[in-house]
């Protein structure tokens, strides 16, 4: 069979290749600590399961293509509480933030087009862009500058006649960068001035550690035509398996185009939307504050532990639950194989996500890793200690 160019250019998850080595390490009796997976261990609120159990219909029918009314209204009211009034027809229910991306990208990207994305970026963006036939033009950043990218002089020279959109994650995965109000304004201004769509992936919105309230690019009503927001209940309510998200935009034409794909896939899951609506309705400010506090404790534990590891370089994350760390090694992938095959400390070792998979350009990020801090502070402290011991053993082995 001949497979399409587009699909052949896509890669499998860069993390997958370590799985057999993890299984082998565990078969030897090692305990493998995980800093590599973005699956939070925080409990999904009971409200989700209660609503699913109380679902009164006798037929689990298709939902309307744009979404179940109670879900759309709950999302609308959630945004109103944040201070961003939107109407239900500016929301499309999707299978997580992932499907929102898979719907919005083909609306604006054709073969040969380009989309600007700050690098390092969430690796699935690469797949979603490649299947449209377009290409990512990375906005380069550096570890030394804390991966900040909202800089006119850096972005504007990358815009050309093929550029159609800018895609950002705010708060950032994998960097933990959160844009300042001025940086948010700048990103919107650039999109508006160059007639581009700014796609703002805000699935980590509430997980921010500064004083600023959770934000959205929807605040810029003067640039309403140029903004689309990708949202999800996955991280907000620790409900990754529910697969409920949203594509939000005040650009009516864009939403009209997106509706074609929504109708084509018939609907997002009816029951999951109903249960997600209960989360939006029932979880109050105390819930969001509690989740944020929990991640802050985890972030503080990781930062304190990393400060004890010699010669690593990192910036303290401002949001989401990830950070990039530059290691004093030649190659973070080789170190990962070493940690799984040759290293252990008291029967334990550690996994992370090697940095290269987050870059568009081969060779970049070779001595960087992404850490996801989604377990409890004690485990995180031990995981980072193992990383430090592993680096020492790896570097002394080579000398
Ligand atoms: C930046 C970012 N966007 C989107 C997603 C997709 O999440 P979901 O499809 O579960 O909403 C993820 C998941 O990890 C993510 O990190």
Automatic annotation (TrEMBL):
GO terms for molecular function: transaminase activity. InterPro entries: Aminotransferase_I/II_large (IPR004839), AspAT/PAT-like (IPR050596), NHTrfase_class1_PyrdxlP-BS (IPR004838), PyrdxlP-dep_Trfase (IPR015424), PyrdxlP-dep_Trfase_major (IPR015421), PyrdxlP-dep_Trfase_small (IPR015422). Keywords: Aminotransferase, Pyridoxal phosphate, Transferase. Its EC number is 2.6.1.-. Its cofactor is pyridoxal 5'-phosphate. Signal peptide: none annotated. It is an enzyme of class 2 (transferase). It holds the Pfam family Aminotran_1_2. SUPFAM superfamilies: PLP-dependent transferases. Residues 34-373 form the Aminotransferase class I/classII large domain. Belongs to the class-I pyridoxal-phosphate-dependent aminotransferase family. This is Aminotransferase. It comes from Oscillibacter valericigenes.
